């Protein structure tokens, strides 16, 4: 089969398409024909060597959708989707014609999504669900502020918050989500993150002076002081990344007087099987139309995989880029 490969760390120029041995099904292992696989910023970081536990040589790629070629009889021919914190790092990933997976990692793709749409869901919705629902335990009637709402994870979190029954969803980002996108339709209000806006004050105004019960910070680092200041009493802050700086100064007296909680979430800790369990929980929301995939702005064949990585690395695409082997 053909696969996108890298044998040393670096920019998109280290990637190349190679002929490699077909993966083989065996005891507890299935083989999936990859129909579509999106490119995440974390895939670019893996190729650059900035994601721990990435081993060489490697086929990158976390998210995928495809058809089971080999495996248990009741799975052969099934349309599946997946993601994982191990594939593309310590195991060969999805930017190839085929991928081998544990049978326990197989999850049926929602019939409402085509392969390309399904391939954009994995990382964004799994880490969104893990942070908002499982870790912060966002409940019906609570308020949430989503920092980075215009990005992949932030847009997913806004939709998840709407499905959970959040009373008010405030999006925060340098620029508002494009009209008509899922994130734009899920939020109740938008606050620009810029030098002219007191973001915490604006969030308190929008929440009747309380602040947000949950702040999901999909940016982190440069946004952390504002995120902490935006919390209501006993509020929960979810942190999944650190942009610009890996440290933040927190007034500890204010922190404990307000009984705040800061919660770290790392989707890399979920392997492809654990991620499949989350996708099974998320799938009904897509089938009912409560969740919508993020917009696809460009597709590439495997030969142009390095170009796809370059577009994501240089941020020349505003939306999802998908490889269709």
From TrEMBL:
Keyword Cell wall biogenesis/degradation carried by entry: no
SUPFAM superfamilies (alphabetical): GroES-like, NAD(P)-binding Rossmann-fold domains
Assigned keywords, A-Z: NADP
Pfam families: ADH_N (PF08240), ADH_zinc_N (PF00107)
Superkingdom assignment: Bacteria
InterPro entries: ADH-like_C (IPR013149), ADH-like_N (IPR013154), ER (IPR020843), GroES-like_sf (IPR011032), NAD(P)-bd_dom_sf (IPR036291), Zinc-ADH_QOR/CCCR (IPR051603)
Gene3D superfamilies attached to this UniProt entry: Medium-chain alcohol dehydrogenases, catalytic domain
Residue ranges constituting the Enoyl reductase (ER) domain according to the UniProt record: 10-323
GO molecular function terms listed in the Swiss-Prot or TrEMBL record: oxidoreductase activity
Protein name: Zinc-binding alcohol dehydrogenase family protein
Biological source species: Peterkaempfera bronchialis
């Amino acid at each position: 089969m053909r696969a996108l490969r890298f044998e040393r760390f670096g920019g998109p120029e280290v990637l190349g398409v190679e002929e490699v041995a077909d993966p083989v099904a065996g005891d507890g292992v299935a083989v999936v024909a990859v129909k579509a696989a999106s490119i995440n910023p974390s895939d670019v970081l893996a190729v650059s060597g900035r994601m721990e536990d990435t081993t060489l040589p490697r086929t990158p790629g976390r998210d995928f959708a495809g058809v089971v070629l080999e495996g248990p009889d009741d799975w052969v021919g099934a349309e599946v989707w997946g993601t994982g914190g191990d594939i593309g790092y310590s195991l060969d990933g999805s930017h190839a014609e085929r991928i081998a997976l544990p049978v326990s990692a197989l999850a049926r793709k929602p019939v409402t999504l085509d392969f390309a749409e399904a391939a954009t869901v994995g990382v964004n919705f799994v880490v969104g669900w893990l942070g908002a629902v499982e870790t912060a335990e966002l409940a019906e009637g609570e308020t949430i502020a989503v920092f980075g709402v215009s990005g992949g994870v932030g847009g997913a979190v806004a939709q998840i918050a709407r499905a959970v029954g959040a009373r008010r969803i405030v999006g925060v980002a340098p620029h508002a989500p494009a009209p008509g996108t899922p994130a734009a339709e899920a939020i109740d209000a938008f606050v620009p993150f810029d030098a002219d806006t007191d973001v915490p004050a604006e969030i308190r105004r929008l929440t009747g002076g309380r602040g947000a019960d949950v702040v999901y910070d999909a940016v982190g680092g440069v946004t952390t002081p504002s995120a902490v200041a935006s919390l209501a009493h006993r509020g929960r802050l979810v942190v999944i990344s650190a942009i610009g700086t890996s440290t933040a100064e927190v007034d500890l007296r204010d922190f404990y007087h307000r009984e705040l909680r800061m919660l770290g979430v790392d989707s890399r800790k979920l392997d492809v099987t654990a991620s499949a369990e989350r996708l099974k929980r998320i799938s009904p929301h897509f089938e009912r139309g409560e969740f919508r995939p993020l917009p696809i702005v460009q597709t590439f064949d495997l030969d142009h995989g390095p170009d796809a990585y370059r577009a994501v690395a240089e941020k020349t695409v505003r939306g999802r880029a998908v490889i269709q082997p």
